[in-house]
Specification:
Length: 412
């Protein structure tokens, strides 16, 4: 397998596997393992749909074009502005959350005094920003290292947990229909990585075949890890015990695994997994944010390149910005928010599902529907990729995703 394809797979996987995965089985305790597994399978395939739709659309735009750029070409400048606005709100808010989580974990490990936390946060922003701003290749290498470490920590967590596994605990069914209904947003939010796809298309030189391998393979890794983790944790205790644990507000998963007596090794594994999961998620998000900034400050293009281009034509979006300017635009706002108004990003994260669904899934699928309808000549070449689902199905999926996103953010 090509190095870039493998790296892209790990970018997808790293962006998808977040530290919140550790408590996923606790949040789904009321539906049991079998229903959890079924929902993981369903949303795995559902989340591949917008991913492959974006892959189809990217082949008709110059290298370096984002979702917003595709939307602009298909639906006009107003949708371009709306898509960019949604992306910046989502990306900056989530970047604040990731940076806050990373710095808190490291600061606790290093026992950084409270009065130096803001300075330490600034130092972390500079280091993390430096990694992703240099180049996508450097971000890929660091992401791989973090991903391998995360997998090692995960293996330790699973190995320790297997000693208490009781297969009977995996046979529980949902306590009610309402429990199943309320569990849907948990798994819908678990597979969020779509904001990254245009950056991966850019990294893979608009090679759609390689991009499809990276997307399918990259999403399959979290599916396997989510399944194993849910199996292990659901098997630790009865359903009533897991529900009680969830209602207690106790998020110490190590305590559950070891029956209230966590070991030093397990504590280290949980910390390492949490930290590396946050870092890989941050790298994926920042890569997408930087691609967007580059496109927003692009050099002038020919009239032809401002529209859609044949899949076999080579064209690239060139930015006016140097790396230092990109760094400032990407990380000055998160740094200022964390330094002066850290609660600000929490408000927007309350609408993260709606924002990310509209920006990175629904609008791209609607743009693809428009491309298929108004630019049939683009599909006349034999080497053009066309996702198998018809436009009417993509429209139905778009409506379904909007509904589930509102379920997730508004708790109804």
């Amino acid at each position: 397998m090509k190095s870039k394809v493998l790296g892209s797979m790990m970018m997808v996987a790293g962006s998808t596997i977040g530290a919140g995965m550790l408590v996923m089985p606790i949040n789904s305790a009321s539906v049991g393992f079998t229903t959890t597994f079924i929902e993981l399978v369903i949303f795995y395939f559902l989340m591949l749909i917008p991913a492959l739709a974006i892959a189809e659309a990217t082949q008709f735009a110059p290298q370096g074009t984002t979702v917003a750029g595709i939307v602009k070409r298909a639906m006009g400048p107003n949708f371009y502005i709306a898509n960019n606005l949604l992306l910046y709100i989502f990306a900056y808010s989530l970047a604040c959350a990731y940076i806050s989580g990373i710095t808190n974990v490291i600061a606790d490990l290093l026992q950084i005094p409270a009065n130096l936390r803001k300075v330490f946060t600034l130092a972390c922003i500079i280091l993390l920003g430096f990694i992703v701003t240099i180049s996508t290749r450097v971000a890929d290498i660091i992401n791989r290292i973090m991903f391998y470490i995360m997998c090692l920590a995960f293996v330790i967590l699973v190995a320790v947990s297997f000693s208490n596994l009781d297969l009977h605990n995996l046979t529980y069914t949902p306590i009610s229909t309402s429990a199943v209904y309320k569990s849907i947003p948990i798994f819908f939010l678990a597979y969020g990585f779509h904001i990254l796809i245009p950056s991966l298309s850019d990294y893979l030189d608009r090679n759609v075949r390689d991009l499809k391998i990276a997307l399918i393979g990259g999403l399959s890794i979290p599916f396997v890890i989510f399944t194993i983790w849910n199996l292990v944790i659901h098997g630790q205790a009865t359903q009533d015990q897991l529900i009680t644990f969830a209602q207690s507000g106790n998020v110490n998963i190590a305590s559950l695994i070891t029956n209230g007596k966590p070991t030093a090794l397990l504590g280290i594994a949980v910390t390492i997994f949490t930290l590396t999961a946050l870092i890989t998620s941050f790298i994926g998000l920042s890569t997408a944010l930087i691609t967007t900034i580059k496109e927003n400050f692009k050099k002038s293009q020919s009239v032809e390149e401002q529209g859609f281009i044949p899949a076999d034509r080579q064209a690239k979006v060139e930015t006016k910005l140097n790396r230092f300017a990109i760094f400032l635009l990407a990380f000055a706002i998160p740094g200022a928010v964390l330094a002066f108004t850290p609660a600000a990003f929490v408000f927007f994260l309350g609408f993260a599902a709606i924002i990310s669904t509209l920006q990175a899934m629904v609008m791209p699928m609607l743009a693809l529907i428009k491309i298929r309808k108004t630019n049939p000549e683009l599909y006349q070449q034999t080497n053009v990729y066309r996702f198998c689902l018809p436009s009417i199905v993509l429209l139905f999926i778009s409506i379904l995703f909007i509904f589930v996103a509102f379920m997730a953010d508004l708790n109804f």
